[in-house]
Structures are given as structure tokens and as C-alpha cells.
Amino acid sequence: YLMSWSRQIPLLNVESLATSLEFYRDKLGFKVVNTYGPDEAPFFASIKRDNVDLMLNTPERGIDSAARRTAPAYDNVVLYMVLEEDVDALRADFVSKGLEVTECRDEDYGMREFYLRDPDGSC
Asked: 14, 8 in Cβ contact below 8 A?
């Protein structure tokens, strides 16, 4: 029996939901769709920007993302987001918000791209 998948929503385990929401909402422009947990300290959030959905979760046992944050190259979680806008303008907007991003590069596979890391080291 074949089933049609309608979408995929990555879930990122994060150390601090508050820190991650500040990054994704305030710096990258995502909107909070909902949160789960106590009002003063939720541990889960669903966020969205345009056609990109993400879930952020603080596991009950916690995580230590220091190794991801300090890795010299990305080797764990990579979110590749395709844009319908000027990549250079988006990069400039992120830089104006104080984010550390790489320079834009034209890749052999036809994409113009840059990288940035979230507070937990995901790229």
C-alpha cells in the first residue's frame, strides 16, 4: 500500500528553548505557532516561516550541545533552506542583526549559499 507523504517537519533538540526562540523568531523571522509546557517555562515550540516548519524541543534529560557549537565544520545537523528571494540580501539582513554568517558562495551544483549556526551549533 503506497501512501502520499504531505510534509516533513524537523525536530531539533535544544538546550534552551528561550535562547532558540530568540534566535529563530527574533533573528531569522520565524513565527511561533504554538508552545507546550508551563507558561513560564515551555519546553516545546512549533515555529514557521513561509513554507518552512520546525519544532524545537528541550528533552527531559537535557542536552549539552557544546561539541556542536565548537565543531570546526558542520557534521551533525544541517538544515538546507531554499529561498525565493535574494540570498545576498537575506545574508545582509542576518549580518545587520549581529549573526555570524559565512560569505555567499556560488557552488558547483548551481546554488548560491551561505551558512550560519543556531545557538546549539546546528548549521
From this structure: no
How far apart CA 40 and CA 74 sit, in angstroms, is: 33
Provide the β-strand partners of residue 96: none
H, E, C per residue of the chain: CCCCCCCCCCEEECCCHHHHHHHHHHHCCCEEEEEECCCCCCCEEEEEECCEEEEEECCCCCCCCHHHHHCCCCCCCCCCCCCCCCHHHHHHHHHHCCCCECCCEECCCCCEECCECCCCCCC
Q: What is the pLDDT of residues 93-116, one digit of tens each?
A: 999 999 999 999 999 999 899 999
Q: Tell me: the pLDDT tens digits for 20-68?
A: 999 999 999 999 999 999 988 999 999 999 999 999 999 888 778 877 7
